[in-house]
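Long-time lurker, finally posting.

We've been working with Alpha-1,4 glucan phosphorylase (Azospirillum rugosum) and I want a structural starting point before designing mutants. I don't trust myself to interpret raw outputs, so I'm hoping someone here can both generate the structure tokens and explain anything notable. Sequence follows.
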Amino acid sequence: MDARYKSREIERRSLDVDGLKRSFLEWLVYSVGKDARAATRRDWFHTVALAVRDRLVDRWMDTTRTYYQKDAKRVYYLSLEFLIGRLLSNSLANLGITEECRKALDQIGISLEDVVDAEPDAALGNGGLGRLAACFLDSMASEALPGYGYGIRYEFGLFEQRFEHGWQVEYPEQWLQFGNPWEFPRPEVLYPVQFYGRVEEFRDSVGEKAYRWVDAERVLAMAYDTPVVGYGGNTINTLRLWSARATRDFNFGHFNDGAYMKAVEQKVLSENLSRVLYPNDATEGGKELRLKQEYFFTSASLQDILRRYLQHHTTFDNLPDKAAIQLNDTHPAIGIAELMRLLVDQHGVVWDKAWDITRATFSYTNHTLLPEALEAWPVRMVERVLPRHMQIIYEINAKFLNRSKARAAGDNGRLSRLSLIDERGDRRVRMGNLAFLGSHKVNGVSALHTDLMKQTVFADFHAEFPDRINNKTNGITPRRWLHQSNPPLAALITSRIGQGWIKDLPQIKALAEKADDVVFREEFRRAKRKNKKRLAAFIARQTGIEVQVDSLFDVQVKRMHEYKRQLLNILQAIALYNEMRDNPTIAWVPVTKIFAGKAAPSYHMAKLIIKLINDVAKVVNHDPSVHDNLKIVLLPNYNVTAAEIIMPAADLSEQISTAGMEASGTGNMKLALNGALTIGTLDGANVEIREHVGEDNIFIFGLTAEEVNDLRASGGFNPREVIASNPSLKRALDMISTGVFSPDDPNRYHPILQALTDGGDHFLVTADFAAYCEAQEQAMELYRDQEEWTRKAILNTANMGWFSSDRTIMEYATEIWDVHPVKPEHVEDGED
Ligand code: NTF
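Top reply, 14 upvotes:
Generated this for you. Predicted structure of Alpha-1,4 glucan phosphorylase:
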């Protein structure tokens, strides 16, 4: 080997400052094609990312080869969303070379922070569901679990949100515009995926009836692999994302003019499949393209999983011992029919056996009880787009209902509720029922949510299969959400208890005894203050609003949705504003209300609430009579990168959904781990957070899920009466309705007021208002006593160990997947 090449080989692996520096300079010149004087921040980002990527490749291959050689059981996490955010600081931290990299760049005169900041935020998801998938990838790799993520490589991620005159406006998010240094295109990993056409019946070699799907349109799925670095850098797993490619026939099929144009048009149409992420969060668009996206990535993933399995096996009998497939919500649930099709039609497995294999392989996670988010595809659409799957679904259904008939004993309501087909009106395929029936385990994402699943959406299925539903309370990765995003607090914790907590979060419990130590409290406050300063600077840059660093940072960051009740928060802000104006001589606790979140583009009510927050902010922030004691900020374009700045800086965490409606929440965990006190309802994982941090260290208010249920059932709630009896609420609503915040259009907020009154206040904003204001007052009072506040904040951080996604993922691994850690070894050959 050429000596120069060899020395580069070694450098590619070296993790010290000199080796890193030499590779940076080399990459900049030879791969990015710039010299140091001309290089932009983006050039440096690409340079550093490529050099860091070099340091992953050997261990990535070791990991993959070890899984192959041991024929380890793998888990495949199928998700339409992976909200991974930036990867550079994550890779550096998990490899343990952040400081070396910083020094190497310093020597070149470049700041690591600037380089990190030049990375686009990969927003291949909407919110909690997608971010959970990303935390799970980190935890699987950190726990040495053979886990693969499978999804779609959207060309456009979640839209960029801007405010124009206070209204949300969406812009395309072009994260791939300048290339993505983390991904490895695999043009040879290509699978055909079919749509439309028809089903032909024929007799197979032994004279049995069989079916084939013919005259279908074909699209190709091409793989792009991204390495997923586990903490410590030993296990490096794979996130495989599919991109749609037209088949060759489209490219070269015809050369006469008209047909050629048509062929190119067809090419664009097929490649649209992976063009854009649907920006729906908890509401369904119900579009054909969405169904096609779901089938596209599911089919490609299953073909890939079967190919990998067949490297070691000749029959499918052991598939469930070698592959666990987790369905992240119902989005990939068509995979149940697809695996049946692949096994029965393509591999000649008999139906009953195929069904046993399918059920033993799949498991399903439910993430919401909102009826509008439960996928139900029109039968006519499925028949047209996936004709063979529709047949298979009918067959599964017929066999199932036949068996259940005896047990239903004349209860036809029950049978029609169990059916995979909703026969009411326009017939639909219930994807939740399909996912339930085709899985051996079905889980909810918090204790309360799992209980409610048993009582509501899946009550009939639960009666039928009492062992199937189980709970896996969500978690968050402590690497990204504390170690990387909160350097001041991470350093403080490590200085006191060592760094074991990064990999084993429950160790953080050792901080609890330091809550009574004044010196520690002072240092804890200093760390928080640093983060608040950083956020204040970010707010000033993004919005021009100046906020007081020592005010109470009251944070509500999440998707904009009526059930999450940003409206309740802004109404309380108006009430507080009024009190401050009425009582100018009181020494008010200064409060900064920080909101951030996107609304689905077609969700008008959520967009109107955004406009209301912006309108209220404009009035309050410019009113000299409140003496800067209240500021309201709505940050644009909330994403993972913004969250990394916001979470560490929060004092108060708003988790105020209508009880029974938030499946879990994960922002609640990030904020509490970073030392924010929660103000919240007994909803989702708030219930378990209260159990862990202790009820003295959390502000719980409002109706419980049961009370909400009773109130709605009894019909005995009249929002107008509630409003009439609460002067501060009435005044706030009157101000909105008389145009105090919208003098240019006094009727602007009529739909909101309408929903709160004649609309029956479905989300119980008025019902919880008084209790919420009281809890807010308690929080403000406590904040006056900084020692006591800090003590509770420390106890929050110290008691959040259980909410690590490492714990969650190990529960899935042992209780659902039967997948075990496999430590990578250096082995020479083996395939993926
Ligand atoms: C979300 N669901 C829930 O709304 C959150 O409460 C939960 O924390 C996350 O899932 C993760 O489990 C969805 O995003 C969806 F799409 F299912 F509605």
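Before you design anything, note these points.
Residues 41-70 form the longest helix (30 residues).
Residues 478-803 form a domain with the Rossmann fold fold (CATH 3.40.50.2000).
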